[in-house]
Amino acid sequence: LVSVQSHCCLAVSPACVDSCKRMIGGAGEASAGEPEVMEDGASSSKDPAGLDGKSGVEQVPPGVITGDDAASPKAGEHSALAPPTTTEVAVIEEQPVDEDPPVPPPLQPPPTASKLQRLGATLKRLNEAELPEAPWWITCDCLRSRYSKLLTTVRDSPRLYCETLASRPWAYVLFWGIVLLIVIPVAWRPVEIDPDIDAFRRADGPAAANQSAFLESLGSMRAVRNESALIDRTVFKIEILYESKEGSVFSEGALRDIRSFEQDLRNLPGWSTLCNKSEPKVRFRCNPGESLGNYVWPRRLDLFLNADGYFGLAFDGSARERLPVDAVVTYLGEGSAAPHDLRKFLPMNFTGPSSDSNLLRSVFSFTSPSLDDSAFKRDFDEFVEKELYDNLLQAVQNTRKSADPNSWDKPWDVRIYFRGSRVDEYEVLSTVSHDAKLAIGPLLLCLVVAWAKMRSAFLAFAATSLLCITVLMAYVILPVDKVSPASFLGIFLVFGLGFTSMFRVQELWRRSRLEADSDSDRLMVMHVDCVREMFPVVCTSACYFLLLTSKLKPLREFGIFIGTSMLSACVFALLIMVPMLVIHERWLRPLIREKLPGKLVRVLEPAGLKPNWSLMTDRLSRFHKHYKQVLGGTAFAVFVCFVTAVAVIATREVSGLSDVFPPDHHKDAGRPLAAGFAPSHLAELAAPAKTDMCEPGSAARLCGLHWCDIKDASSSNLSSLPDSGESSCTCNLVNSFKRTHSCTTTNVSFVFAGDTVASTEKSVLTEKAKSFAQNHWPDAASITDTGGSIRRLRSLVVEDWVSGSTHVQSMITLPGVNVFNSSTRSVAGCSETVYCYCNQQKCKTPSGFSEASTKVILPASQQTSTPTDQLQGQRSTEVVVIFGIVAKAQGQLEVQGKWEFDTDFDPSSPWSQRAMLRVCTDLPSDLSVLSSSCWIQDFRTWLLDKGQKFPVERFYDFQQTLKDFLVAKPSVAASIWMNEGENMTATMFKFQVKPGSGTTETLDARKRWVEYIDKLNNEATSTASGAWVTSQAWVDAEAADAALGSAWQVLFSVLGVVLGVGLIYTLDLKMVGLMSLLGFCICTWIMFIFFCIFGWAFGPWELTIIAVFLSYAVEPAFHICNDFIHPGLPDVPESWKPVSKVRVLALTDGPAAVQAPAIMAPDAAADAEVPALPAPEVPALPAPEVQALEDGASMTPGALETPRAAGAGSLVVQPGSDADPGSLPALPAPEEGGNDEVPPGTEAPEASPPLWETKSNPSNMQPNKEDTAEDALKRSVHVVCKNVLWNSAKLILCGFMLLPAQFRIFSRLGGIAIVLPLLFVPTVLILLPTLILFCGRTAREPDLLQLGKFIIAKISWMWQ
Asked: How far is 733 from 735, CA to CA, in rounded Å?
């Protein structure tokens, strides 16, 4: 037996040989080993010398029973954690068996050495390798000596690092803690969130770069801000959109709801306070504001028609009686309310009084009273936070409520949407704050899961704290001034996925006990294992950096944030978590078990909280054998899901860009509605607050509209359309008309009112007027027209007093006709006006007028729309041409556009002025320009009216001339950039163009504009050859076109990286092919759930999420494939020939199995560099007198002790002894407590756990040569299953906590986090092993190595 134990000592590392010999030589020094808790539930022990359950040896001969194959206790037996009560152990010799029972064909052994042998050989070669000599140019002996020392230090640095880490782990924790405490506060910056939600819908491209540069340059239009210029003041604008739920927004109920809501806003205390602080000149912007309700509900200044034939109205929105909508629309459309017009309040597709609309807009703004706007900003922010936003949000929620049959409250007739600069920012910040608070739930959940997985409160808190530090480090490293909300999405992913590296390091640290004895050797082995085990984790984390190729800036920022966080988690796991593991195992865990009560110990160190992974693996392995069912069902499911997903994507419109908020959120729901309105420009002058409604024929004054009552209400029907045939005009003459016969010359003016008069040609109207005059002056010598043009008057509103309905008619005035009498009259000249009503609705004859007997018949007209109708209703987009500014390229994470002034632009050059004018005049028809705003045309007209030339002559001062023009036209200053000397440095011209019907047509329109401007630049001189064009519509179209393409690029890049990592990790093409098939299945199922079940749109964010989770889902597959291709070597090489099989007889009072030490064959002694000893001859005991354990039982090294003196307590049966094993006395059970008696009436103190419970040692589950394919995969699944299921459970629970998020991408991520584990867990743990078994793979050598050997063999002739 001594010989056997000597061989055992020779098999281990030389560091523990002396300890083993001391154990053998000192009979009284050896003590029973300390059983340890195995990862798989089995027990092992460790002796005081530090020998673990495998005696420090990875290779043992076949037939020796190891802890890997230890049988677990059967039902009804004691727990494996119970201390062994072995009473007798006998060692016998069994003759070699000639023929083993038939077993499945083993896998082919790998040609490489084992992990421990490779590590030892590498360290040996490093230590024995001769260091290179110093270069010849280092002649100084001192320097050569230092050079050698440097090389020695570099060579020995891994070993030195592990030794110092093992001896002083607390120093490393303290050092890195100090580093983090210095780096993070020094590099920290205040957290500023970028509220630009439109960045999620803006892709990188030339259109976006130009538009960003243009918008950014608008803030620098004045180098010196003018105190008196309103354009230089800070303005906070609020736009409110109203959408009718049913019918028209002009209905009585809708208009009343709008008026009530806006009155409530104006009555807010903060609103009144801020409006009173605003600039007095533009205080009308906030009270009453720019709203259609002010015109719909005007206050009447005159209760009746006064003697002059008019009544006044004040547009303040305070009346209870509304003005007819068609009258309001006509009033705004005819320019009487300038600068207000229809486009200010109604969408661009509104056509005029005869049309209807379901949308309406109101604009309110607050203007800073001075250039120093800090206090004003602070007051407005406080108003938004405390009053405005809550009231707006409450109004939005109220308008979404449906009718309650049990309530008297009437539901709103409109839906409300709002937006504004500071309001939008506050909404985004509050939403981010709300969603960020949801991260507390996943954080606590991760702490609980880590507590259960690591079975240590200390390690769980340490890992969670390190994960929080990774988030802080990612923010510090992130090279942006303002953080996008997408980065907060990365926080959830870090908490959901970031524990992988922490779990992996702890698992490797536990496994290192099977491969080394001392902590330094364990650390060396563990770090070597980390290179292999964490390689997929690091590479999949690096996949996030591929998002830098995306066209969306938030996606690029998200990629940097999450990628940095995941890589930092890997680094912190190695640098900080490893010393914490050493501290926990060496000091903290024994201290907790010795000093704290048992209940508290079970909470802080829940060693028994461990699922039965072996049982779970057994159940999973059952599926691996059913090839047809698993693969057939999978193929059918993938085929159905793939076809369905493709069909849905093909039939559904591709939006290109996803919405940030949910579809019913006012922000995203109101986005398409807001796109239908023209840009709202702030009015610098107040619209007329009052106007007069005049009766036709009243005293001459400026009227807003003409108004009359129907002559015969009983026969009129205002709801019917005008007659499309000939119109009979009834004309009214003044009562003094007959006196004009005494005039030599009479100028007669004709005013026609009706629906068709505006479309009737002038010649026809003139002939009708002459005919009417001829009938009244039959003796006139001649009747001639004056030759002027038709002038349009304010429209006429015809009202039916009985029903209250109104109808608007056009009114025009002819130049008039001159009637010359044949004889001399008493009066030289007279003038009269005739009012003719050419419609079914006739106005009452006003006082002082009489109806003429002559009728005027107008011919039928095919055109029924008025010129006002033609001008309205044409939807348009704005295109801006810019001179004098150069747009520069943006950085990867820059939001603001870069620009600078064009130093070559010289507006004073005549050629520059001609080039600017040409842009506005030589417009091709294919540009679809509807209208233009070119100040250069007005400037030219102004110069010509003054008798000057255009361009400005060379010897004239252009800049001074332009300043004089700005005095006459101050609104032009909004289109000019000026330097410190108030001289023009850049300018822009705006065009309203017909929008494209889709993305392709819009981009084609941009192409035509760019080609047109490039052509003008090529023909212009260098002083004006840098013009460029931009439009927001082009940015949206470019984003929709480019973002999806970049998302596909990111997805394919991630797929390529994942496959490349798999190829490097496994070096096997077949395994990579299987992982590719696995990835295709996962992507297909994710797409089916996305687009078919959830009904999501097909956009870049969806593809990006697929790419992110794909890299996460296939990471466990890397380990399964790698363990199958690169298993550990068999315990003994083939050259080792066992002398005999050794079995162990354990006569126990308990169920604990013990492990036999390995016996080294003589041939292996040379590898261990120790002299070989002959195989021990142990006589066999008679079989009837012993009870042998079944193959697969295990035994602890401490059970084989040095022979004691004959007597009680002897554990060893001497060779050749006839002693009856059953007669041997039992070893006394270890004492649970002391001998002190507990005083009566006091509670007995809880016994501290025995020392053997202070460590938990895992079994070596790595596949080996002796395993069949099924067993090898079963072991691999066992190893991977733990982390996969723990992470999946954590991911699912985190997903549920993300569902209440307000950001749509956050809630979608929560849904994906719930569904994804349900897909990839069975795919990785069931489908992949089934595929490996189905393909019949038995070779353990990677096929790339085989290919390399074949190629080398073929070309070896080159060097032979």
From this structure: 6
Paired tokens of 371: 């250039």
Distance CA 212, CA 890 (A): 9
Nearest-angstrom CA–CA distance, 1100 and 105: 50
794 CB-near residues (< 8 Å, 6+ apart): 334, 336, 694, 703, 704, 705, 706, 811
Determine the Cα–Cα distance for residues 63 and 839; give it in Å rounded to an integer.
115
User: pLDDT tens digits, residue range 408-434?
Assistant: 778 889 999 998 878 888 988 888 888
Q: How many CB atoms lie under 10 A from the CB of residue 1021?
A: 14
Residues for the chain: how many in total?
Answer: 1360
Secondary structure (H, E, C), 1318-1333 = HHHHHHHHHHHHHHHH
pLDDT tens sequence across 335-389? 788 888 888 888 877 877 777 888 999 999 999 888 888 899 999 999 999 999 9
Name the token pair of 499: 């524990």
Tokens of 664: 């019913």
Who's near 758: CB < 8 A, 6+ residues apart? 792, 810, 812, 866, 867
59 and 1131 Cβ atoms separated by less than 8 Å: yes
| Short-list 705, 702, 691, 690, CA closest to 798 | 705
How does strand 34-38 pair with strand 43-46? Answer: antiparallel
Joined together, the tokens standing for residue 874 give: 């044409």
At 1033-1049, the pLDDT tens digits run: 888 888 877 777 777 78
pTM across the whole model: 0.70
| Per-residue pLDDT at 101 exceeds 60 | no
Pick from 411, 292, 294, 423: nearest CA to 359: 292
At residue 1009, does pLDDT exceed 90?
yes
Q: How far apart are CA 958 and CA 948, in angstroms?
A: 12
Mean pLDDT of 176-202: 86
Strand partners, 986: 977
Amino acid at 788: G
Distances 858 to 756, 761, 861 between C-alpha atoms, Å: 9, 10, 9
Q: How confident is the model at residue 1165 (pLDDT cuts 50, 70, 90)?
A: very low
Q: Are 309 and 844 in contact (CB under 8 A)?
A: no
- Name the token pair of 1145: 């007889």
Query: What gap in Å lies between CA 474 and CA 899, rounded to an integer?
Result: 30
Task: Report the alpha-carbon distance of residue 1067 to residue 768 in Å, rounded.
Answer: 98
Taking residues 1015-1029, report their average pLDDT. 89
Task: Write out the DSSP string of 194-235.
Answer: ---GGGGG-B-SHHHHHHHHHHHHGGGSBSS--TT-GGGS-E
User: Burial of 267 by CB count in 10 Å (0-12 exposed, 13-18 middle, 19+ buried)?
Assistant: exposed
Task: Return d(Cα 386, Cα 1293) in angstroms, integer.
Answer: 35
Question: Which residues lie across from 962 on neighbouring strands?
Answer: none
**Closest alpha carbon to 704 in 344, 341, 335:** 335
Beta-carbon count within 10 A of 64 CB: 19
Q: Which helix (H) or strand (E) holds 751?
A: strand 743-754
Measured between alpha carbons, how far is residue 1177 from residues 8, 1131, 1173, 1174, 1206 in Å? 15, 22, 12, 9, 22
In percent, the amount of the chain with pLDDT more than 90 equals: 12
Q: How confident is the model at residue 881 (pLDDT cuts 50, 70, 90)?
A: very high
Query: What is the token pair recorded at 348?
Result: 């661009």
Within 389-534, where are the H helices? 389-399, 421-437, 440-454, 457-477, 485-497, 499-511, 519-533
In this prediction, residues 962-981 reach a mean pLDDT of 84
User: What average pLDDT does the structure give for the chain?
Assistant: 74
Long-range contacts (CB closer than 8 Å, 24 or more residues apart) made by 592-601 = 593/1248, 593/1249, 593/1253, 593/1254, 594/1248, 595/1248, 597/1246, 598/1246, 598/1247, 598/1248, 598/1249, 599/1246, 601/1249
